[in-house]
From TrEMBL, chains A, B:
Keyword Transcription regulation: yes
Protein name: MarR family transcriptional regulator
Keywords associated with the record: Cytoplasm, DNA-binding, Transcription, Transcription regulation
InterPro entries xref list: HTH_MarR-typ (IPR000835), MarR/SlyA-like (IPR039422), Transc_reg_Sar_Rot_HTH (IPR055166), WH-like_DNA-bd_sf (IPR036388), WH_DNA-bd_sf (IPR036390)
Subcellular localization: Cytoplasm
Source organism superkingdom: Bacteria
Length: 148, 148
DNA sequence: AACAATTAGATTGTGCACAATTGAATTTAG
DNA sequence: CTAAATTCAATTGTGCACAATCTAATTGTT
């Protein structure tokens, strides 16, 4: 019985881990067209919503730290999509802002969610239900880890 | 309207991506005790089930390719948990086998799934329901990508 | 004012992921 | 039987993730 506990197909964690990677692979061809990686796309999503954001804020929205974000943001800067500048008010803070080119890319990215929904063959209501399930699990896991 | 489609909080993909990483972080302290990373743990799960497996077979079970597996398996070999050997029958194939030490590690790993279930605060029936949901989504995504 | 504690971001180092290419072994077709 | 196609693993190169450490700026305490 304790043997059975270790079977791969019983692992919820594996299903989610593999699922996440499969979804990223579905995105790739669409993101290639706009020249972004998947994590870069997530950063751009936040910036398209908020125009500019601190590294700290991006980290809180995406659950990423500066070790991941700093090099990623430097690459987005190299691509000409964002600018990075120390805040005048607080020299510790780095503010990331959309360049004109970065803002313009939004138009080309707009079709991506719809195309992916089509690719996935999910009904909108099932999509929403799954999103709810994952978000509730996500918040639960995150809260769990904070209060450990 | 097309603006709303690009909001981060509407993204199923992000919920899954973040969820997967949070779960891995819950595992880390438990896996540290047995000296494995999360992907190494997944490889060991397959080997504890099957005693030995080809690189190709491991890749099929875990949805990973040789570019990921080869260096990972070399590290497991360095740790003394597995051995790697070309097949006599077909020199292209590399067979990965548990060493005695690798097989013995199973005893120490047995408690991990239960500890994680406790950490997660999920009821067993909810755990099973979620696993079903995510597996069905996983297979759907994978199949989608194969028949694109 | 002075100094300890905290905070924000950068840096370093390890280990995945994965696309693309390579090379050797095997299978298939002509 | 042999040449082309396929298969399996390794290699190369890029880009995350993340722990740990570091530096500089700010805040809190006395």
């Amino acid at each position: 019985m304790s043997d059975d506990q270790l079977r791969l197909d019983q692992m919820l964690c594996f299903a989610i881990y593999a699922c996440s990677r499969e979804i990223t692979k579905l995105y790739r061809p669409l993101l290639d067209e706009v020249g972004l990686t998947y994590p870069q796309y997530l950063v751009m999503l936040v910036l398209w919503e908020e125009r500019s954001a601190t590294v700290k804020h991006l980290g809180e929205r995406l659950y990423l730290d500066s070790g991941t974000l700093t090099p990623l943001l430097k690459r987005l800067e190299q691509s000409g999509l964002v600018s990075r500048a120390r805040s005048r008010d607080d020299e510790r803070v780095v503010v990331i802002s959309l360049t004109e080119q970065g803002a313009a890319l939004k138009q080309r990215a707009n079709k991506i969610p719809h195309e992916l929904l089509c690719k996935s063959n999910l009904q909108p209501e099932e999509f929403l239900r799954l999103k709810g399930e994952f978000e509730s699990l996500l918040h639960r896991m995150h809260h769990m880890r904070q209060t450990d």
